[in-house]
Amino acid sequence: MNNTIGLVSLGCAKNEIDAQLLLGALREAGYAISPNPNECGVVIINTCGFIESAKQEAIDTILEFAALKQARVVGALLVTGCLAQRYKDELAGEMPEVDGALGIGGNGEIVRAVEALMRGERYFAFGEREELPFEGSRMLTGPAYSVYLKIAEGCDNRCSFCAIPDIRGRFRSRPKEKILAEARRLIEAGAVELNLVAQDTTRYGEDIYGRLALPELLRELCKIDGLRWLRLLYCYPDRMTDELLETMAAQPKIVKYIDLPVQHGVGKVLREMNRSGDASSLLGLLEKIRRMIPGVVLRTTLIAGFPGESEEEFTQLCEFVQAARFERLGCFAYSQEEGTPAGERTDQLDEETKRRRADIIMETQAGIALEIAAGMTGQTLEVLCEGHDKQRQEYFGRAHADAPDIDTKVYFTADTLPTAGSFVTVEITGAEGYDLVGSIK
Q: How far is residue 192's CA from residue 440's CA, in Å, rounded to a whole number?
């Protein structure tokens, strides 16, 4: 068996950071890392286990590589991430195709696990979830110019539909000094955009400093030379304080973009989700944010088909979407998760109803998003160039309104040849669906 390691990482940006720390530890231990997981001595499958579709993707990927292992295309299989944590007993006892698994708290044992698999042994370690490493050398698997930076882990919000607290453990902030040190390393390595992530970024500091310390962290990050864009993801509506909004408005390096998952727009459903607010309070918050941060772009996530959601409540959710006019919006059909209060309810809706309602929300949002995109014609935007589309014969990138991996693109023509990671000024000449088109000014 060769000593080359391959990795497939599924799920969110937070899970991607965990995968990069795994690879960094293995690289420091002397292992060769291959970008192609085929023909590797050990393949690590870093899984997501948040909702049913993510679990199915993880299982399908495990079985895909199990077939390659049986055909002797790859060597041993090591499963890590949320699925490994959530279903540790099943992985160890019911999937003989898997040679090892590390739960969230077992990631620090990655080198020992790979050494064991290389010897033909099985290796399973889980540990306490709170032992998940924050620190270490990251082997970046994406572009060096745009990088995710984790500021906290775990969650204490206990939304009734969510299994994350049971998978990832209690909320725990990362010390500010550690975050700033990593930010400097990433910027020295070429990062111009840092995207802050956690299960709840707005709670940062409450556990270790006794206060909501995100605004001061943002101000310190903005002092680092070489940083151009600082983006804030995964905010919680209840903790959008005046200090946070004032900081975002005052700091030019903080892009005017907030990812604010509100989950629903009806008070009764929100209470049953163990969240606060209603349509009136949420619309008031959005109005306040837009007033305090002119030109801000707001992204949200909604859940359609929550247990007991009536037709009237769904209609009210549609009306909320129309009134809120989020610039970016995604909607999931509710996923019934075992071990959660919502998952144990007896008033579950059928899958067809949940999917239909999610589709209606997205259709409602499509009209809003297309109207917003069309209204951008004639504006001039700063765009972070990401590459060249050979089929379109155009360059593409993202404006401040677009987070990596999830949002739209700006396509543009250029007489000179911009490099990936450079900033260009683009005059918008039109829209193609959700994407903008233009030319370098």
A: 20
